[in-house]
Amino acid sequence: AVREREGDMAAGCLLFALVSACCLLAGGSAVPEIPIGAIFDSNQIELKNAFFLALQMVDKSRFKLKVNYTMTNVNSSHSVQQSICHQLFPWGAFAIFGSTNAFTVDSIQNLVSMFHVPYITPGIVKAENPKSQDYVLNIRPRHGKAIIEVLEMYQWTTFAYVVNSHEGLHRFQETVRIYQRDHFYRDLNVQLIYVANTHVAYPELARLDSLLKSQSRKHVVIDLDPPEVISDFLPQIREMGMNRREYHYLATGMSVTDIDTEGLKHSGVNLTGFQLLDYKNLKVKDLKMRWEDLCIQKRLICSGPIGYPLYEIALLMDGVEVFTRALDSLLSKPDTRRQLLDSLAAMRNPANRTDCVVKDDSAPSAIASHRLRNPNVYAYHNLGSSQTYKTSHVGELLMKEMTATRFDGYSGSVAFDSNGFRSNFTIDVMELKRSRFWPVGYWHTHSGLEKLYTYANATNHTSSMKNDTTMIRVVTIETPPFVNLVVPKPGEPEPTGNDRFEGFCIEMFDMIAEQLGIKYSIHIVHDKKFGAKVSEDPVKWNGMIGELLSNQADIAVASLTISPERAEFVHFTEPFLTFGISIMIKKPKKEKPGTFSFLRPLSQEVWIYIVAGCVGVSLGLYLCARISPLEWQVELDEESPPTQKVSRNFSLLNSMWFSFAAFVNQGVDLSPKSSGARMVASVWWFFTLIMIAYYTATLAAFLTVELLKTPISNWEELAMGKNGILPGTLDAGSTKAFFTTTNMKPYKQIGEKMEEFKHQVYVNSTDEGVRKVRESKGKYAFLLESKTNEYHNNLEPCDTMMVGQPHGDKGYGIATPIGSPLREKLNDAVLRLREKQVLDQLYKKWWVEKGQCISDSGGGSLSALAVINVAGVFYILVAGLGIALLMALLEFYYIAKREVSKSRVSFAKVAMTSAREKMFGQSSRESTVPVEPQLPPSAQCYERDVQSRQLMQSPTPIPPPPPPPSSLQPQQQPQMFQPQAGYGRNSGFAPSKDDPVSQRDFTVPVHVHYNNTSNEFQTTASDGRSFLKGGNLM
Q1: Is 158 labelled a binding residue?
Q2: Number of domains in the chain
Q3: What is the pTM of this model?
Q4: Would 860 disulfide with which of 29, 397, 498, 708, CB 3.0-4.6 Å?
Q5: What is the pLDDT of residues 711-742, one digit of tens each?
Q6: Short name of one Pfam family for this protein (predicted)?
Q7: Known binder of ligand: residue 6?
Q8: For strand 218-223 and strand 158-163, is the pairing parallel, antiparallel, or unpaired?
């Protein structure tokens, strides 16, 4: 029984051992959940979101992270300590991520160092006591030495230092102490300016301007906390007028390219700063894209003066990656993995969990410790608190592993020294030039400041302007007419020295040297190139730019184009000549005028409009003549029996004849009588006067000029390859760089075509390109600067020409190395020459007076008169036609209204009858009955008067009418005149009994007309007698 019990116990122990081993293995192989904490300022919503974005992007295959974050006031030490305690008790965070502030950095350092908890921060940490950084991992690089070396590079011995915090005061003291100690500057003069409120710093800026008033060059270091507040500080500099050329500012922040410099652009002020992030790096581009997407999704402010700087986000990203890499490394090693899991299990044990309460009067330094039963767990008792905290060696393991981590992060190379500070990092030195920042060097923790470019020796340059024995080395390139080699005449000695050269640039620089009082020597660039990059290495240039960078020359004077790429490495003066890129082609033969060349002075559209105008005027005359009664007339026909005809002079054909005769300045017998027709004629005569004057003047010029028809006339036609013309340019230079890099049409198409035929179209010199144009039989177009194009077009054999408009507005400038003091003096000299118009006189001398070709004004520059040139005349013509038609209608209305007042017919009936007869009736009617013809009612009165005068003046009386047919009833017989009761002014009409004449047969023909003067009707018999007003014969 005992043996059986012993066997059962052994079996039970073995089973327990197996189960325990399985549980241990299962627990060891499971993915552990690691608690971490985060503390952010209440206003740092962007930083909190960036932290969670970083957690999503890192590799967490060996573990899971459980985050507990707190939003608090990082300016309060009590709030920050309470937040740290909250992360440690009862959460048990392995590490804490968070912000730091100048007011709370001491409390954070002491607290996390005593509790052995790593605190990872991208914020500010003081560096005066490196030993206090034991458990603080500072992702932000310290670049105080970089600031000092930049001051040394610029040789600043007198400058102002602007700060706004106690940390800034400490950095100021350290900077001055190290700067004076390492560089032995005994005469160092530094003025400290403390700005209490960076939002309103006008008093401090006024004091700064007053302190530096006596300095010709005013140097200012801007050291503000946080560095982003410089965006509020710089606009005040502009408002105070301190953005002048003599000011040079050095910003100590690490993201100078993110500063809004809109008020400083093109002002001449110098601004130097530091740049940590490389925005050309693919990782940084990806981070920027992800961050912008997150900002849009979360509706955060991520850019602009109040946005969170991207380099802070990058530093936080690198901090998260440092921690996850270190944690992954510890979990991959069996021994450290065991320690981490044991510590995690101990933290989860309720017996080991406590609370932490920090009192307001707690002193973080008053802490004692004692060892618990577990050798890996320690207890710390805060004399100012009421609880204890138990921890392990996890913090020490993590801190050692993180300081040993190396990788390439978003902020560059990430590595740390034993004190938790960044090491082995690089930061760029940037300088504001014109409208953007350009790198001028970089600083590394080991090698110090490295200058990207060769700075000319400032001492030699300065002394050379005062000491006549020092020569300035001037490099140039032979490009007529800017620089020519002098060819001696027969019998003359070979020129030496500077006398070997002549040209526009030579004469210009000789005047500049005389103003500055310097001596110089000129030499030709060895590779005969202007200057271009020869590789991806930014410091390797050929041509004149290369000689400036390699210190083989001090100044480059030539037709050197000012371009952004070159301005990144050298400094240019103001342009002494401006130009654009132009097209040179072979001049085609001139064409003789054709058979119909007389039509060329006016464009096709103008001719069409003239014909349309002629037709419109004809129709206008015709309508006005039909509407107006003044254009109607009665004509007598002497045929037997006599007839009367009603007609108008301005029929449709006559109206067209009148319009055409007026257009060719010929007279006709027709003359309008009505006001409407006369208005039409007046505007047509004015129109023809202007058009004939235009035509005559333009035709005279066309007849004296032979037409020059070019195969292409603009950039678009060159891009399309019209007439098979291929474009080409110099194989190295700014012109080729423009066409091969631009995205603008049609210039991009031209660049692609040149690259396609690069073995045929690229040339090594301007002379070779001009020669290729002359020998290509019109199939090659050379692209070059417009000034050079104009010069070669004036040289024999005068068979090249420029077509199209030059593109762009570039300039030629004098180049100097960056930092050369000669640049400012050269710039002033160029401006003086330009102001005195000396450069214009030199241009006229070398381009116009030395030209070998006769000016040809007939180079196809005349163009046909377009519609836009004579649009006003057409407007007057159309307006005149409209006014004339309106006047004719008013005249029609007036006559019809007067007829209505003299008859008992309504206005509508009179108007409709008259309009129907004028618009759709016959233009003339004949009648064999010797009575008044039936005119339209509005014209009867006028025609009666005309006919009465014709009858009274006629020598032959009108014969009486034939007797009426017998078959007619008496009331149907035609009556010559039947007076009715109420006719005229009397109540009736009857012959007087006392008048013997009245007893005669009253059958004589009579004529009735209306007297306009007396407003009365009057009748006249065929024998000459007239009726009285009452109706009796006179």
Answers
A1: no
A2: 5
A3: 0.49
A4: 708
A5: 898 999 999 988 889 999 988 777 888 898 88
A6: Lig_chan
A7: no
A8: parallel
